[in-house]
Backbone:
């Protein structure tokens, strides 16, 4: 049997593109408000960040993405000229573990932080390490919004990259781009800085059942300063969504098929 004849390996039925979640992780998230230390003042923070991010996570990211995902990156050249400058990277959310690693491999040696669900800092052991790896958890209510935004703005001013997954929910091996709100684009729209897209596609591999993950980097996308803030963010969303949708069509296999349930009956 040819590899092309085994796909899809399973079919998943969904109801809501914006809110359905297909991650197997079940973690009770801790509350995140204005008391959360988004920007640690500890003198040991820089050392912890270096040890966790550079000496532990970076080598692991290269090993995992290469050995497990057969990972490749296309278009990395568009990031040239961004050395020392902060920017945003928007990516589709299709790997429970790989999404924690692939952007960092794609942008290496750029230091990056990632906007995450509070569950990522709530794990019994790893939750204590993820902040050093760059996790910026979203707040639960209005009280946490100001320090949350301040943390993102600070990392951008420091010259780091900030990674966001605007689809919010993980759909493993999904080969399309789901609709997403313009809310996340308010960050680059307000700060007037560059954004890039990273669209992960899936390609058949000759000797492996699981397909290869291939990411395409596009940009930079800059906000249209002639538009009011909300329209500026929406315009950014529309432009980036179109590019990601075009890139997603480069997938040449459907490892998992997603079918929308008929809710009319």
Residues:
């Amino acid at each position: 049997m040819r590899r092309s004849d085994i796909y899809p390996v399973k079919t998943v039925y969904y109801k809501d593109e914006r809110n359905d979640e297909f991650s197997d992780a079940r973690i009770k998230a801790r509350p995140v408000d204005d008391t959360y230390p988004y920007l640690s003042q500890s003198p040991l923070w820089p050392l912890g960040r270096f040890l966790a991010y550079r000496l532990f996570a970076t080598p692991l990211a290269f090993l995992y993405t290469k050995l497990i995902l057969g990972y490749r990156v296309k278009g990395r050249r568009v990031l040239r000229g961004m050395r020392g400058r902060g920017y945003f990277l928007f990516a589709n959310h299709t790997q429970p573990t790989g999404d924690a690693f692939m952007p960092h491999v794609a942008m290496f040696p750029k230091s990056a932080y990632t906007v995450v669900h509070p569950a990522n800092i709530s794990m019994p052991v790893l939750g204590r390490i993820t902040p050093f790896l760059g996790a910026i958890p979203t707040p639960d209510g209005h009280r946490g919004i100001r320090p949350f935004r301040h943390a993102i703005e600070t990392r951008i001013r420091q010259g780091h990259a900030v990674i966001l997954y605007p689809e919010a929910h993980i759909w493993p091996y999904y080969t399309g781009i789901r609709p997403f709100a313009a809310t996340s684009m308010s960050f680059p729209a307000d700060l007037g800085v560059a954004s890039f897209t990273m669209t992960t596609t899936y390609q058949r591999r000759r000797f492996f059942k699981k397909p290869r993950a291939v990411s395409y980097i596009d940009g930079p996308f800059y906000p249209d300063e002639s538009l009011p803030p909300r329209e500026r963010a929406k315009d950014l969303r529309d432009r980036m969504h179109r590019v990601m949708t075009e890139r997603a069509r480069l997938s040449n296999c459907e490892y998992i098929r997603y079918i929308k349930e008929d809710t009319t009956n």
